[in-house]
Design a protein that fits this description.
heterodimer; A: about 425 residues; alpha+beta; 2 domains; twelve-stranded mixed sheet; 14 helices; about 15% strand; B: about 230 residues; alpha/beta; Rossmann fold; six-stranded mixed sheet; four-stranded antiparallel sheet; 7 helices; about 35% helix; about 30% strand
Chain lengths: ~425, ~230
C-alpha cells in the first residue's frame, strides 16, 4: 500500500514537521494533555516505588519471612497430660523441626532474663549499675535479625558457645549508661548478677530490627543455660524460612508440628504463642502494591484523557484546516495521503509530548530523591520507574494516538474536496 | 481536449431537488481560451467543478483528452486531477503557512518528485509569473494580484492539460485583473487550454470564445474577437 510507504518517506515527515512547527499554538495546546498525563504517571509510579523502597529499607533489619514462637501453657488436657502444662522446647527439637519442615532455613533458640521472662538482672560496672534484659543466643540469631556491630567488635561465635565463654554483646544504650563518654567498652568487663563478662561487641540499634531495645545484652546461649541452670530447655525461638516461603504458611506449619512434637492437642491454641514478621510486612507490601496499582490506573487514565484531548484538538484542527486539506486534494492528494498525514501528525505529537513528559517526570523524581535523601524517618528511597512500565506507557500512548488520530483523519476525507474548498 | 455530452446534475436540498445542469453538450479543442459566463445560479461553477473532477455528474459523459471520466474513486480522481488539471480559484486558496515557492511545489510533491527537483521547477514557474524574487514570502505578505499569480504558477507547475479558473479576477481590482488576464492570455498563447468562469463581460471578452449558461443550459456559444491586453 502506498500510504504505508509514505510513513518512511522523508517528504512526508517534512510536510508533518512543517505543519506542526508552523502552527505552534495548536501544537502546544495539543501536546499539553499527553505531556501532563505521562508526567503524572511517571511521578506517581516513581513515588510508589520510592515508598516501597522506603518501607523495604525500614524493615531491612529482619528477615521478612521470620517468626517467633514461645511456650505458654496448655489449655486442653491431652493424651494423659493435664491442662496448664508448659510445653518447653528442648535443643534437639531444633533438628526435629528442621527435618519435619524443609522450608525452614534457620532456627535460633533463645533464653532470656527480663523482657517477657522474669525481672531483668542487675548489671554493674564500677560505680554504675542498671537493670538490662539479658538474652542467651546462638550465632545463627544474626542470620535472622540483621545485627550491626560497631567497628572493632563482634557478635557471639561458635567458640563462645563451645567453651561457654563469659562474653557479652551490649547495646549502644547499655554502653551509654555503664561507660563514660568516649570510653572504649571493648575488652572491658561488666558484672551480670555478680558474674564478670567481657564486652566483645556493641550493637548499633536500628528501628524495626527485632524486638529488643537499644540496651539489650546478649551472651552465649550455653553460658546463659549454665548460669541460670536451664539445661537443654528453652521457651522461645526464632525461625526463618527460605526466601520463597510464605510467612503465614510457615507459622501455621510450625505450630501444627510443634503440637505433635510436644504432645499438645491439635485444638489447643493457647499452648504456644507466635507472631510472624511477614504478616506485618505483608500489610505494608499490600499498601505499596495498592499505591503502585493506583498510580497505574490513574496514570493510564490520565494518559487516556490526554490522548483523547489530542484527538479533540486534531478534530478541531481538521475543521480549521478543511480548506487547506481541500486545496491539497484539489492539487492531487489522495484520501490515503491526507489520512496518513493526519494520523502521523497525531502520533508524532503524542510521542513528542510523551517523551517530554517522561523527561520532566524523571527530573521531578530526581529532585524529590535529593530532597528526601537526608530524612531518616521518611520512608522514601530511590524513586524509580521500571523501564517496562515506561515502555508500556509509551506503547499505550502510540497506540491510542494512532487510534484517536484515525477519527479526525476519517473526518478529513469524508468531506468532498469541493465542499472543503468552499470553506473559508 | 474536452468532450461533454448530455451532462445532468442535481443537488438534493432536503426533500426537494435542485436541477442545476440540464443537459450540457460542450467541447473544447486544444489551445482554446474559453470563457464560461452566466449569472449566479446559472450552473457555471457546477460545470467547472465537474470538469475539475471535484464533483460528480448524475448523467452524461465526460471525456478528457480521450479518457472517459466516470465513476472514479477518490484516489483515482486525485491522481487525474494532479496530472491533467490545474486550478485557479477566486479566493486564491494558497496554504497560508507555506511560502510562495512551497505552495507552487505542492502539486509536484503529490507527484512524487524529489524535493530538489520540485524547487527548481517551482522557481521556474514563479519566474514565469514574474515573482521569482518573492519565492520566500508567505501569502500574507503578498498582494491579491501576487497571490493569484502564485496560484497560477501552482496550477501550471504540474504541467496540466487544462487550466480551470473559477472567477480568477473576482477578488481583484480592475488593474490587477488586467495583469492576471494578461498572464492568462500569455499562457494560452504558449498553447495551454484554459477555461475561465466569470460573470464579467469585459473579462469574458479577453477570451477567444464565450459560452453563456442560463438556468442550466447553454444558450449561446460563440467565437469572439479577443481583446488582447497590452502594456500592463
Amino acid at each position: 500500500m502506498s500510504s504505508l510507504k509514505k510513513i518512511f518517506d522523508r517528504d512526508t515527515w517534512d510536510e508533518i514537521f512543517e505543519s506542526i512547527s508552523k502552527n505552534k499554538t495548536r501544537t502546544i495546546i495539543t501536546t499539553i494533555g499527553v505531556f501532563w498525563g505521562i508526567f503524572i504517571y511517571i511521578a506517581l509510579a516513581g513515588s510508589a516505588t520510592g515508598l516501597e523502597n522506603g518501607f523495604d529499607d525500614a524493615f531491612s533489619g529482619l528477615s521478612k519471612n521470620s517468626m517467633g514462637v514461645w511456650a505458654q501453657r496448655t489449655s486442653i488436657p491431652y493424651k494423659g497430660f493435664e491442662e496448664g502444662r508448659q510445653p518447653l522446647f528442648r535443643l534437639n527439637d531444633v533438628d526435629k523441626l528442621k527435618s519435619r519442615i524443609p522450608e525452614i532455613e534457620y532456627i535460633s533458640p533463645g533464653l532470656q532474663a527480663g523482657a517477657f521472662s522474669g525481672a531483668p538482672p542487675l548489671v554493674t560496672r564500677g560505680t554504675r549499675s542498671d537493670n538490662f534484659n539479658v538474652f542467651g543466643n546462638f550465632p545463627v540469631y544474626a542470620k535472622i535479625s540483621v545485627i550491626k556491630i560497631f567497628d572493632g567488635g563482634r557478635y557471639i561465635n561458635e567458640e563462645d558457645i563451645k567453651y561457654e565463654r563469659k562474653v557479652a554483646v551490649i547495646g549502644e544504650g547499655t554502653q551509654e549508661r555503664l561507660f563514660t563518654e568516649g570510653e572504649d567498652p571493648l575488652g572491658k568487663y561488666i558484672e551480670i548478677n555478680n558474674v564478670n563478662f567481657k564486652v566483645v561487641g556493641v550493637t548499633k540499634f536500628s528501628q524495626g530490627s527485632g524486638f529488643g531495645s537499644d540496651s539489650d545484652i546478649t551472651i552465649p546461649y550455653t553460658t546463659f543455660a549454665k548460669l541460670y541452670n536451664r539445661g537443654d530447655r528453652y521457651g522461645f525461638m526464632f525461625i526463618a524460612g527460605y526466601d520463597y516461603v510464605n510467612p503465614n504458611y510457615l507459622e501455621e506449619t510450625v505450630m501444627s508440628n510443634l503440637k505433635v512434637l510436644k504432645t499438645v492437642s491439635p485444638e489447643d491454641d493457647r499452648a504456644f504463642g507466635s507472631f510472624n514478621i511477614g504478616s506485618l510486612f505483608e500489610s505494608i507490601i499490600k499498601f505499596t502494591k495498592g499505591m503502585v496499582f493506583l498510580s497505574l490506573v490513574v496514570g493510564i487514565a490520565t494518559i487516556f484523557a490526554g490522548v483523547i484531548g489530542i484527538g479533540n484538538i486534531m478534530l478541531i484542527a481538521v475543521k480549521e484546516r478543511t480548506n487547506e486539506l481541500g486545496i491539497r486534494r484539489a492539487l492531487g492528494a489522495t484520501p490515503g495521503e491526507v489520512k496518513v498525514q493526519i494520523v502521523l501528525e497525531s502520533v508524532f505529537l503524542t510521542i513528542l509530548a510523551g517523551i517530554i513528559g517522561i523527561i520532566v517526570g524523571a527530573f521531578l523524581l530526581f529532585v524529590i530523591n535529593i530532597g528526601t535523601s537526608g530524612l531518616e524517618d521518611f520512608p522514601f528511597t530511590n524513586p524509580t520507574v521500571p523501564l517496562a512500565i515506561v515502555f508500556g506507557a509509551f506503547i499505550t500512548m502510540v497506540t491510542l494516538g494512532t487510534l484517536i488520530g484515525l477519527i479526525p483523519a476519517e473526518r478529513a476525507v469524508s468531506i468532498k474536496p469541493i465542499e472543503a474548498l468552499r470553506e473559508e | 481536449m474536452i468532450e461533454i455530452k448530455n451532462l445532468h446534475k442535481s443537488y438534493e436540498m432536503g426533500s426537494s431537488s435542485l436541477h442545476v445542469l440540464k443537459g450540457i453538450d460542450f467541447s473544447v479543442a486544444d489551445g482554446e481560451l474559453v470563457a464560461i459566463m452566466g449569472s449566479s445560479g446559472s450552473g457555471k461553477s457546477t460545470l467547472l467543478n465537474i470538469l475539475g473532477m471535484l464533483d460528480n455528474s448524475d448523467q452524461g459523459t465526460y471525456d478528457l483528452d480521450k479518457i472517459r471520466i466516470a465513476n472514479m474513486d477518490e484516489k483515482k480522481a486525485a491522481n487525474y486531477r494532479n496530472k491533467f488539471l490545474g486550478f485557479v480559484f477566486q479566493s486564491f486558496n494558497l496554504i497560508n503557512y507555506k511560502n510562495a515557492l512551497e505552495n507552487v511545489a505542492l502539486p509536484l510533491y503529490y507527484q512524487g518528485i524529489s524535493r530538489k527537483e520540485r524547487q527548481v521547477i517551482a522557481l521556474n514557474y514563479l519566474g514565469k509569473v514574474g515573482l521569482k524574487d518573492w519565492s520566500s514570502h508567505l501569502p500574507s505578505e503578498l498582494s491579491g494580484g501576487q497571490k493569484q499569480r502564485v496560484a497560477i504558477a501552482r496550477a501550471l507547475a504540474s504541467n496540466p492539460k487544462v487550466l480551470l479558473a473559477d472567477e480568477p479576477t473576482g477578488a481583484l481590482d480592475s488593474k490587477t485583473s488586467m495583469e492576471v488576464m494578461a498572464l492568462i492570455q500569455k499562457i494560452n498563447n504558449e498553447g495551454k487550454t484554459i477555461l475561465v468562469v466569470t460573470h464579467e463581460q469585459d473579462i469574458a471578452e479577453m477570451c477567444k470564445r464565450i459560452v453563456l449558461l442560463k438556468d442550466g443550459v447553454i444558450v449561446e456559444d460563440k467565437k469572439v474577437k479577443q481583446n488582447i491586453i497590452k502594456n500592463v
